[in-house]
Structures are given as structure tokens and as C-alpha cells.
Design a protein that fits this description.
heterotrimer, A mainly alpha (about 350), B alpha/beta (about 500), C mainly alpha (about 350), A: about 350 residues, mainly alpha, ABC transporter involved in vitamin B12 uptake, BtuC, 2 strands, about 0% strand, C: about 350 residues, two-stranded antiparallel ribbon, about 70% helix, globular
């Protein structure tokens, strides 16, 4: 019953999403000429990079069991601040740094609300999003003027040896984030707090600090995303961040990270970003319109969420798992109709059935 | 064995497995009409599982259940209720935000012209409450506004409202204070006089002898036998529950009293309007916190560890300690082994290795980076030392049995080499073998100089294990018993003493 | 057997009179009235009821969506697809009105809303996918369907009768005010006086106990999502009447505002506590913000900040209230997974 486990993540959890990415690439390559050409791969990876960088923060926050709904205007505000500072004639690099710091600070505010005031993350980040929208609108009067600094544009649009700079940046960040999550105390705290906040507090882990830091990093990664976006597009506009909220949550979940927290990794999120990008790119190329893309997008999320939850969970492995899910439909009529031990889930009290003397 | 009279509830040959674990095999139960019948057994003997099977929550793998001679099978909780069996569990099944009346009539909402009639609901509720001398509870009040013991009485009111044939109380006294326990006893006697059959599951021996007519003893998932209360002594019953002569299994206590004070707690006030009191934790001893449930033992330990409210001073030697949270407490060498290991003690989804390392991450990291090899060695050493049965250190903690899980919790905190250990009912739900191992470990810890403070709901455990017992009542210790003063009777007597 | 001391029975507890309990929805109601007064006073110098009621047109769609969302939030869930259902209903009516089938369009829109809710409920209950993700996915699917039905805003062939049923007036009272009042009454009845309503609150309050009380938890939860779908569809239909056109992007903004309205109204995100009425007040509050700023001479761009502050503030107020009031209940441990705790 207990296979020898060598690490926290089961190989199938990581390999699964990547296998799907490979499948999607192969499928696209077979169906669409030029799909696997270097230039197309390069452009797809660029698109995925934006999504992936923004989702760094969302991954950490979801690992904690929270959520960050302020992604749209963290991105948008960072973008308008960057061009705004440029217009006010600050210097390029210092604008860049300043916007990142502001993003960090705004994320910090989210974290403070959630950790210290015990405000639900849904509400805190929702409210912050609105507040940030207000700041962005007031600051720009509704139509942002100005352009990003030249080096940001280069970073966002340039390529080196055929690989977009953003992708190189992304790879560096992937390594950094993964190292932190796996090897650092902070990373360990994130998993612990996400898995069981109470037990973590009782062990003396810095629960509040971990939460605040995660939201702060989310602010930072969204700020970086906003900077890169405006570098890519050449200008900012109100609403440019709106399309990134749902995908940022979706790719984390597609990758296999659990919404309840404590389980997942950024490597998995990367796979999610790649998968969504490849699928969308394929759909666009074969001229599926926006409507079709949206429908497919939703279906993919549902399928991945279902399989991640059912197929890779501790107990329910194997082919019968999905059957168990469907069987619940019989329960519509009478609780008795459900198969299995528990007719109605009254939870066990502290005392539980004990193995017989031979087992222990 | 006693001969059952007219059988109202009969259970034969019940078997139940959960996954690979057999909870019950060949469990029998015969309850006579109109009697108070107790089910006794160690933690993990299967009492609760048996009750849940009777209540329709679980379906037995084998065996039959008879009510008034009729076999019934495949029941749902609702169906069982309709047959006249009402169960009161230890966990509250009330809906906190709804009113008292709503909760009481939830299963049979009174209607008028298709819509719920609140007036009828209040009337029904008020009548039910009046019948149980609970008339002071306002049926319109939301349940969450009532104190915990009133909620428990409400729970019982809910179950007795329907005038059930059989009332089953599963550890129902655990949240009740002294006065309520008395009221509950009166209620049980009244019900019996009115012809209701009452089945009581408890691990409080004195309750059984005070209330019950007959008892059934379970051990390791099987029925040992049915006995007449008047024909068997507590000691015999305890032996039957454990399957051996119980007295021999507690390790030898310390001789003479401990001298060195590990931690001095003074000017302690856990609740408002309380007279300040003081207590010492001494090196090399096991101090027990006794008394009925809810008398402040848990609050006291929570306060010491920095997670609960209270006032007072902690002193070690000359230095005063400031403890604002677990991190401070741990830094001072104080650890707390929590009550509910699944919710408070373990990270169930995380690997055993991470669980073990959780409280001592700082020792194996530099500049915030964890030294993985050191952690691996640490985990393997801990697994070996505590004989933790696990396939690989990366198995999730959820895969372990109850006793092994508790070992992981202990191992995690022991790694801090604590000088003061606080145990909040940590032995609950552990199988007998592991428990005895813990007793030995506790004694070894004490012998090596640590100060162990143990709150347990099992009075026998306290009596057998502790060198000193501070009996709590109403938020403060009312008596401290030491050495030969410690007997089951003296502890129980002190528990019921009205606070002076 | 040694004799144990006799336990004195029945220590009398003093009679508990219920104190006046400040219902959570009162906060939103007070805020709504306050803003209403500010709004109208500023623009006229005196208070005119008729003018005050003018806000109903704007508040109605949001209130409807908020009511639907309330049902779902009461079950400790969330429905992120309400905005997309609004859009779907809206474009369905618009397109069919263009063919002269407005009446049929309305019926179809409601049916689609119910169907969408049913799908949401089934996915959440039986596939056991977390509501956040499930409704996020279905919202994408539904938006896709809406885009397919009506790729671009248009359709000015909304029949007059629909407009007068939503945007018209009876005497000097806007029809939408009447709809709002009806919604308040209906909401109160459903939640407090029907078995469904009580079961809904029970389910959100303590799921495990609801099971053992015989409540068909799956059925109740699914119905909550169906209710959300129907309410959102009604909002989309109302929008068609109010704006006289169909727009495939119209529903997007309603999601966040509806959740905000529910929170302001006092419904707890973890379920079990809350009222329909409160959410309606919350919708009114949010609809008034821009208006009040305008008549006060302040930039309407401030509305976003004000809204954000109101939402966070309302949550803080409500949670402080309940911390002071209730005692901790040792409830049965829920079997459902935790929902965004940190």
C-alpha cells in the first residue's frame, strides 16, 4: 500500500500537465502547418511568459488557500504609473524600480488586511481592486498618456537568439520561485500555512508574516507583468489588466494546485500557462472565433479541475475514481442510494476506529 | 452476566471495516425495555462506531439489528429517528445562526398555508423546553448566543422532544459543567421512570454506577459481555475493558516530592472576576490537571502557551518570561501537545518528514535556506527513535494510524528538547498499546528532569500517572493532591467540591 | 462502592431576555438611506421622494443579481458565472426581439438561466469541484455561448412593452421601484418562511448537522445555484428593457458589484448568515455612490475608491459585530473543504 516515495510531489502530478502540453503541441503540429516552427514556438512562449509571470503571485496565494482578485488593477496601475512617471521625466530604471516597489507595497496592503484584520481574501482583494481602479482612473483622468522607457520595450519585445527576452526572464523567475518554494523556510511555511494554519501557528511558524509576504509578492509579480505588458503594447489603457484575472487563477488550478491550499507548485502552474497558450494559439490559427475559444477554455478548466481532484487525490486513484463521481447522481433521490460506507457524513469525533492488535 | 428482560433493542454479530481497519467484529448488544444501559470501553473499542451503526450513519458489513423484535436494515438517520431512536452526539448538531425554535423543529417544520408558521414553531419549542425545566431559554434567541452547556442541553431537548422509545447519549456529558451533569442525571432518571429506554456511552466510570442498570463492555471491537451494574465492581469492569489487570501498567511514580521549580505561575486570572491564584510546575514531575470538563484546564494551558486569554506572571528562576505566542513559548523550552492531533497537531497532507521537522526548522537552516540533508537525517533519526511505522518519510501524515500520528506530533515537539511539556488530553483516541508506551515515555521525560503538565479527561489515567494533581473547578485549582493523597475517590470528590 | 457526594441539581440560571439584536442588514439599510438623502438633498436642497426613487432603474439589475448570488453564498459557495448569465439572457432577448419574438425570448432566457444554474449546481455537488473554479469555468462557457448568439452590441428592436415594464412609471413611481419592493418581500418570504429557505440557512450554518437532520443537502445546494441563474437571467431581461438593446459585454461588471452588494448587505461569505433584503440594500448603496459623488461636486472617478472602501469597511463592521455577539460554538467538523482562509 505504501509505495516508496522519494519527494513531496508525486511524479504523476507534475508530469501529467506537461504530458498534456506535449500532446497539445503534437496535435497542433500535425493539424497546423508551421505550428511547431521556431518562430511560432517562440511567440507562444512569449505569450505564456506574461501569463506565467503574473501567476507567480497567484500561485503563492492559492497555495496558502487564499486568492488575489486585485490582479487586474495591480497590472493596470503599474502600467499607467510607469508611463506616467516617464512623462514626468523620471529616469527609466528608477521608474521601473519605483513601480515594482509600489506594486510590492500594494500587495503588502492586501496581506495586512488578510493576515492582521482577518478580512477574507476574496473581499480584501476585491475591494483593493476597486480602490486601485479608482487611483488609476484619477491619476490618468481616464486616458493614460506616455510611453514606457526604451529598455522596457526592448525587454518586452526583443529576442536574443530567437528566444524572447521575456521568456529568458521567465525561466530565471521559474528557477528562483521553485528554489524558494522547495528549499527555503519561507516556501516551507507557505505549504504549511496553506495545509493547516492552526497547526502551523502552534508550531511557532510565522503565519502572519508568511501571508503578508505572499500577497506582497503577488503585488510585485503583477507589477512586473504590468510593466512588461505596457512595454509590449507601447502604451497603457484603462482595462488592460481585466483579461488576466481569470486566466491567472485558471492556469494555477489546471496545473494541479489545490484551491484549498498546501498542495501544488509553480512548476505545475508553468505547465498550465503553456497548455492554455498552446490551446488558444491553435484555436486562433484554425479560425475558431472568440466564442468558441471561450467555450473551450471553460471546458478545459472543468476537465482539468475534475481530473486533478479526483484522479490524483490520495485515496481515489485509478479508473474507478471518475465513476465514483458520476455515481453521486443517484443520490439525487435518496441518500440511501449512494454506495459506500457513509450514508450521511457525520464526522468522526476524536476517537476513531483503531487497528487491531496485530496491525500496530 | 445478567439475563435481559424484555428486549427492546438487540444487536448481533455486527462487523464493520473502514478501509483496511476493522472497527467492529462480532459486536452484540441487548438492551432491555425501560432500563438505563451503559456501553463501556476503552477509547477505540468501537463504542461510537456501534452507536453510529444503530443510528443509521454507517451501514454494517454483517450482522443484524432488532427493534422490538423486528429486524431493521439499511436505515438512514431520518428513518432511524422515525422508528423512535434518538441519538445525542458529543459534537453539537445545532445550527448556530438559526433560532432555538428553528433548531428544535428543523425536521418537522410547522406550516400554515404552505409557509412556515413561526408562531407554531415557538409554541412547540417553548413547550418542549418547559418539559425539561429549560423554560428560561428563549426560543427566539439564536443558538449561537447561548452558552455551551445550554446548547448541549438543547441538543438533548431536541432528541427527547419526540418522546423517543430509545434515547442514546454518546458522551453527552463531556461539555457539561457540574450543575448540568446533575440535571442531566435527573432527566435520565425521569425518562426511565416514564418508560424510555436510555443507552449511555461514557468513559466516566462513576456516571455508570450512579445511573445505569446494566452495562455492555466492548474491547477491541468485540463485546466482552453484558453485566448487571450491581453485580460487578468498577475494578473488575476496568480489567474487562482493558483485558488485563490494569494496575500494573502505569510506570512507577517518583518517590518524594520534586524540589526544583521549573516554572512559577503567579497572580493567574483566567476569567474575569476571578481571585488570582498560583501554581508551580516542578522539574522531574508529572503534574495532572483534574476536574470536570470545561473547568478551565484547557484555558490554563492555552494561556501558558500564549494562545489563550488570561492574566498572570510566568517566572523561571529570577527572570520573568513574556510569552505572547507559541514562538515565544517554544523559545523558552515550553511545548504544547494539542488535543486534536488532526486539526491542531499535524499537517495531514504534508509528508511525515516535514511534519517532524516543523517546529525546528531554524536549527537546520542558514540564511533562510533549509539544509535538506540535515533534515533527512533528522527525520530518519526521529522515525527510528520513536518507532514510527511508516513506509517512507515522504508519506503524507494522513496515511498513519492514530497512535503513530501522535508519535509524529510528539517527535516534532520533542526535537526542541523542551523543559516544560503541556499535554492537552493528548492520549484521547489512542489504542491501549501505544498509550502505555507513552506513559513510559512521559515518566522517562520526567526522570530526565523535564516538567510534564497533563490535562486528561480520563481520571484513572491521571491517578495512575501523576505525582501531583491540581483539581480545577470554575477556572482555578481548588485542591492540589500529592503523593498518597491521590486516589480516584479523592480526585472525584475534589472535582465536585463547590468552589470556595 | 464508595458513596459519591450528591450533586445538587438545578442551579438556576437567570432568565435570558433577548437584547435588541442589530441585524446585519440594518447597517446596509442605514447606509442606503443616508446616501439617498445625500443624493437628493444635494441636488435640490430639499428631499423629494420621487427623485429618490429614480435610483431604482439603476439599482434593479444589480439587486437582482445580488439576490441570486446571496442564495449561493448562503450555502458557503460562490457563483462567478452570474455576470455571464446576465449577458446570456440579455442577448437572447435582444436577438429574439429582433425577430418579433420578445415574449418567447424572455421565457427562453429564464429557462437558460435556470439551466445554467442547474449545471453549476450539479458540477459543484456531484463532480465535487470547488465552486470558485467550477463557476469560473462555466462563466467562460456561457460567455462564449452569448458571443455566439450576438457577436456585437445591437438590437434596438426591444418592444415598447418590455421597456415600460422595466423603465416606465406608474403615476410618478418608477416600475422598477415596485419590482424592487416585490423582490424584498419575496426574498423575505422565501428565506424565512419556506422550507427551502430554512434548509438553505441550515446547510450554510452546519452542513454535517443538516445531513443528519435529513435535509437533502445536494438538492438544496443545486437549487441555490438554479435560483442564482434565474435571478441573473431576470436581471439580463431587465437590462434589455432598460437599455433598449443587447450587448455581449454587459454582464461582466455585475459579478464583482453583486458580490460587493452581498457583502455590504451583511451576508457572511462562509454561509448560514445573511438576508436577501440586505443584499438589495447593498445594491442600492453601490448604485448610489456615483450619483452622490456627482451631486456633491466630486469627481465621479472617486466612485471606485469609495466602493472599495465601503466593501472592506462593511465586512469589518459585520465581523466585529459577530465577534462581540456570539459565543464560539463547538460545531461538528465540516466535511467540505476549507474556502480561502488565508
Amino acid at each position: 500500500m505504501s509505495r516508496q516515495r522519494r519527494s513531496y510531489l508525486r511524479p504523476v502530478e507534475v508530469a501529467g500537465p506537461y504530458a498534456l502540453v506535449a500532446l497539445a503541441l503534437i496535435g497542433g503540429g500535425l493539424a497546423i502547418p508551421g505550428f511547431l516552427s521556431l518562430s511560432h514556438l517562440s511567440s507562444m512562449s512569449g505569450v505564456a511568459a506574461y501569463l506565467g509571470i503574473i501567476a507567480i503571485g497567484q500561485t503563492l496565494v492559492l497555495l496558502l488557500g487564499g486568492i488575489d482578485l486585485s490582479v487586474p488593477y495591480l497590472i493596470n496601475l503599474s502600467a499607467v504609473l510607469l508611463v506616467g512617471f516617464q512623462v514626468a521625466n523620471f529616469s527609466g530604471p528608477s521608474d521601473f524600480a519605483l513601480v515594482l516597489v509600489i506594486g510590492l507595497g500594494l500587495g503588502l496592503v492586501n496581506g495586512l488586511g488578510v493576515a492582521l484584520l482577518d478580512i477574507s481574501p476574496l473581499v480584501m482583494t476585491l475591494g483593493m481592486n476597486s480602490i486601485l481602479q479608482g487611483i488609476a482612473v484619477i491619476y490618468t483622468g481616464g486616458s493614460p498618456q506616455g510611453f514606457p522607457p526604451a529598455f522596457v520595450t526592448t525587454l518586452a519585445t526583443g529576442t536574443g537568439a530567437g528566444i524572447p527576452y521575456v521568456v529568458l526572464l521567465w525561466v530565471a523567475l521559474i528557477v528562483l520561485v521553485t528554489l524558494v518554494l522547495v528549499f527555503s523556510r519561507f516556501g516551507r511555511s507557505i505549504y504549511s500555512v496553506g495545509s493547516n494554519r492552526t497547526a502551523s501557528a502552534l508550531c511557532g511558524l510565522p503565519v502572519k508574516r508568511t501571508i503578508i509576504a505572499a500577497y506582497a509578492i503577488s503585488g510585485l509579480s503583477c507589477a512586473l507583468g504590468g510593466i512588461l505588458l505596457v512595454g509590449y503594447q507601447g502604451s497603457a489603457y484603462i482595462g488592460m489588466g481585466d483579461n488576466y484575472l481569470l486566466p491567472s487563477v485558471a492556469i494555477v488550478v489546471i496545473g494541479g494546485t489545490s484551491l484549498a491550499g498546501g498542495k501544488g507548485s509553480y512548476i505545475q502552474t508553468v505547465a498550465g500557462a503553456l497548455l492554455i497558450t498552446v490551446l488558444q494559439s491553435a484555436l486562433v490559427t484554425i479560425n475558431v472565433n472568440q466564442a468558441g475559444q471561450d467555450v473551450l477554455y471553460g471546458v478545459v478548466i472543468l476537465l482539468m479541475a475534475y481530473f486533478n481532484q479526483v484522479a490524483v487525490s490520495r485515496e481515489g486513484g485509478g479508473s474507478k475514481a471518475w465513476l465514483r463521481g458520476l455515481h453521486g447522481l443517484g443520490g439525487w433521490l435518496e441518500p440511501v442510494g449512494r454506495r459506500g460506507d457513509v450514508v450521511a457524513p457525520i464526522p468522526e469525533p476524536v476517537r476513531e476506529p483503531v487497528p487491531r492488535a496485530t496491525g500496530e | 452476566m445478567s439475563l435481559p428482560g424484555d428486549e427492546v433493542l438487540g444487536v448481533n454479530g455486527i462487523c464493520k471495516r473502514f478501509g483496511g481497519v476493522e472497527a467492529l467484529h462480532d459486536a452484540d448488544l441487548t438492551v432491555s425495555r425501560g432500563e438505563v444501559h451503559a456501553i463501556l470501553g476503552e477509547n477505540g473499542a468501537g463504542k461510537s462506531t456501534l452507536v453510529k451503526i444503530i443510528a443509521g450513519v454507517f451501514r454494517p458489513d454483517e450482522g443484524e439489528i432488532r427493534l422490538d423484535g423486528q429486524v431493521f436494515r439499511a436505515m438512514t438517520p431520518q428513518g432511524v429517528r422515525e422508528l423512535g431512536i434518538s441519538v445525542v452526539y458529543q459534537e453539537l448538531s445545532l445550527i448556530p445562526e438559526l433560532s432555538v425554535a428553528h433548531n428544535l423543529v428543523l425536521t418537522r417544520l410547522p406550516k400554515r398555508a404552505g409557509l412556515i408558521s413561526l408562531r407554531k414553531a415557538y409554541v412547540i419549542a417553548a413547550e418542549a423546553l418547559e418539559g425539561l425545566a429549560l423554560g428560561y431559554i428563549d426560543p427566539r434567541a439564536p443558538v449561537s448566543s447561548l452558552p455551551l452547556d445550554q446548547q448541549q442541553m438543547l441538543e438533548i431537548a431536541k432528541a427527547t422532544m419526540t418522546r423517543p422509545k430509545i434515547l442514546i447519549l454518546d458522551e453527552a456529558t463531556s461539555s457539561l459543567g457540574g450543575a448540568e451533569v446533575g440535571r442531566l442525571f435527573d432527566l435520565v432518571r425521569t425518562l426511565r421512570d416514564e418508560g424510555t429506554t436510555v443507552v449511555v456511552i461514557t468513559h466516566r466510570m462513576h456516571e455508570v454506577w450512579e445511573l445505569a442498570d446494566a452495562m455492555t463492555i466492548l474491547r477491541d471491537g468485540a463485546t466482552v459481555g453484558r453485566y448487571d451494574v450491581h453485580k460487578i465492581s468498577q475494578h473488575e469492569a476496568v480489567n474487562l475493558m482493558a483485558g488485563r489487570d490494569v494496575r500494573a501498567i502505569f510506570p512507577e511514580k517518583r518517590h518524594g516530592s520534586a524540589n526544583e521549580v521549573a516554572l512559577k505561575l503567579s497572580q493567574v486570572r483566567l476569567r474575569a472576576n476571578q481571585e488570582p491564584w498560583a501554581l508551580d510546575f516542578r522539574q522531574g514531575e508529572i503534574l495532572g490537571l483534574g476536574g470536570l470538563e470545561g473547568q478551565g484546564q484547557r484555558e490554563f494551558l492555552s494561556w501558558v502557551y500564549g494562545i489563550g486569554p488570561g492574566f498572570g506572571t510566568l517566572t523561571r528562576g529570577d527572570a520573568q518570561l513574556r510569552i505572547h505566542g507559541p514562538a515565544d513559548a517554544l523559545a523558552q523550552g515550553i511545548v504544547l501537545i494539542p488535543e486534536d492531533r488532526k486539526i491542531e497537531g499535524l499537517h495531514l497532507d504534508l509528508p511525515v518528514r516535514w511534519n517532524l521537522a516543523m517546529a525546528t526548522l531554524g536549527e537546520r537552516s542558514r540564511l533562510g535556506v533549509i539544509h535538506m540533508r540535515a533534515e533527512r537525517e533528522f527525520a530518519l533519526a526521529a522515525i527510528g527513535q520513536m518507532a514510527i511505522k511508516v513506509g517512507s518519510p515522504f508519506q503524507p501524515a494522513s496515511a498513519l494510524s492514530g497512535g503513530t500520528q501522535q508519535k509524529v506530533v510528539l517527535g516534532k515537539f520533542m526535537a526542541r528538547h523542551p523543559s516544560v511539556l503541556l499535554f492537552v488530553d493528548a492520549m484521547r483516541g489512542i489504542d491501549v498499546q501505544t498509550k502505555f508506551g507513552f506513559y513510559g515515555m512521559l515518566r522517562d521525560l520526567a526522570r530526565s528532569g523535564a516538567s510534564c503538565v497533563l490535562y486528561s479527561s480520563d481520571t484513572e489515567e491521571l491517578v495512575g500517572l501523576c505525582d501531583r494533581i491540581a483539581v480545577f473547578s470554575d477556572g482555578a485549582p481548588v485542591r492540589v493532591l500529592e503523593g498518597s493523597e491521590i486516589t480516584l475517590d479523592s480526585v472525584v470528590a475534589a472535582s465536585f467540591a463547590v468552589g470556595g | 462502592m464508595s458513596s459519591l457526594p450528591h450533586v445538587p441539581s438545578g442551579v438556576d440560571v437567570s432568565f435570558q431576555r433577548p437584547k435588541f439584536i442589530w441585524q446585519r442588514s440594518y447597517t446596509a439599510a442605514v447606509l442606503a438611506v443616508l446616501l439617498l438623502v445625500l443624493d437628493v438633498n444635494q441636488s435640490n436642497g430639499h428631499f423629494s421622494t420621487i427623485q429618490a426613487l429614480g435610483i431604482s432603474n439603476e439599482a434593479l439589475p444589480l439587486a437582482l443579481v445580488a439576490v441570486g448570488e446571496t442564495f449561493v453564498i448562503l450555502t458557503n459557495g460562490i457563483d462567478l458565472s452570474v455576470g455571464s448569465i446576465v449577458t446570456l439572457a440579455n442577448v437572447t432577448v435582444a436577438v429574439l426581439a429582433g425577430h418579433g419574438l420578445a415574449g418567447f425570448g424572455i421565457v427562453l432566457a429564464i429557462a437558460m438561466g435556470a439551466a445554467a444554474g442547474l449545471v453549476n449546481g450539479l458540477i459543484v455537488c456531484y463532480a465535487r469541484i470547488a465552486p470558485l473554479i467550477a463557476t469560473l469555468a462555466t462563466s467562460s462557457i456561457i460567455v462564449g455561448i452569448a458571443l455566439y448568439i450576438l457577436p456585437y452590441p445591437g438590437g434596438s428592436t426591444i418592444p415598447g412593452w418590455l421597456s415600460s415594464w422595466t423603465a416606465g412609471t406608474i403615476g410618478s413611481i418608477p416600475v422598477s421601484t415596485i419590482w424592487l419592493a416585490l423582490a424584498v418581500v419575496a426574498g423575505w418570504i422565501v428565506l424565512r418562511r419556506t422550507k427551502f429557505g430554512v434548509n438553505l440557512q441550515a446547510l450554510g450554518g452546519n452542513e454535517a448537522s443538516s445531513w443528519s437532520a435529513g435535509i437533502r443537502v445536494m438538492r438544496v445546494r443545486t437549487l441555490a445555484y438554479v435560483a442564482a441563474g434565474v435571478c441573473s437571467a431576470l436581471a439580463g431581461i431587465a437590462l434589455a428593457g432598460l437599455t433598449q438593446s443587447g450587448d455581449p459585454t454587459i454582464g461582466a461588471v455585475y459579478l464583482l458589484n453583486a458580490v460587493a452588494a452581498v457583502i455590504v448587505g451583511g451576508t457572511s461569505l462562509s454561509g448560514g448568515v445573511g438576508t436577501i433584503v440586505g443584499s438589495i440594500y447593498g445594491a442600492i448603496v453601490l448604485s448610489l455612490v456615483a450619483s452622490v459623488l456627482f451631486v456633491a461636486g466630486l469627481s465621479t472617478n472617486l466612485q471606485f475608491i469609495v466602493t472599495g472602501v465601503i466593501v472592506i469597511g462593511a465586512l469589518l463592521v459585520h465581523s466585529l459585530q459577530s465577534k462581540r455577539g456570539a459565543r464560539i460554538v463547538r460545531r461538528a467538523r465540516p466535511t467540505s473543504e476549507p474556502r480561502g482562509d488565508s
